[in-house]
Amino acid sequence: MARKLYIIDGHAHIYAAFYARMHELTSPSGEPTQAVLIFTTAILGLIKNHKPDMLVVAMDSKAPTFRTKIYPEYKAHRPPMPPELPAQIDR
């Protein structure tokens, strides 16, 4: 039987979760948690419903990568990350 490997673009899904503004979700200390909660719920749902044998979540690096060496304009025109999001990604 073939094994199932799921590869998730973590940053794309975190951004989607961040902009799925139902209402603000925060930790008891007031930190925003909406993106990480929605992202984690989606991943757990994927595991429950599809039962992959392996799961990889790929995240963008904060440091420059080989892509910017090959193509200096890579992601050069993207707007900056919303200020509430980095702390949620780092969690």
Automatic annotation (TrEMBL):
<dbReference type="GO" id="GO:0003677">
    <property type="term" value="F:DNA binding"/>
</dbReference>
<dbReference type="GO" id="GO:0033567">
    <property type="term" value="P:DNA replication, Okazaki fragment processing"/>
</dbReference>
<dbReference type="InterPro" id="IPR029060">
    <property type="entry name" value="PIN-like_dom_sf"/>
</dbReference>
<dbReference type="InterPro" id="IPR020046">
    <property type="entry name" value="5-3_exonucl_a-hlix_arch_N"/>
</dbReference>
<feature type="domain" description="5'-3' exonuclease alpha-helical arch N-terminal">
    <location>
        <begin position="4"/>
        <end position="90"/>
    </location>
</feature>
<dbReference type="InterPro" id="IPR038969">
    <property type="entry name" value="FEN"/>
</dbReference>
<dbReference type="Pfam" id="PF02739">
    <property type="entry name" value="5_3_exonuc_N"/>
</dbReference>
<protein>
    <recommendedName>
        <fullName>5'-3' exonuclease alpha-helical arch N-terminal domain-containing protein</fullName>
    </recommendedName>
</protein>
<dbReference type="GO" id="GO:0017108">
    <property type="term" value="F:5'-flap endonuclease activity"/>
</dbReference>
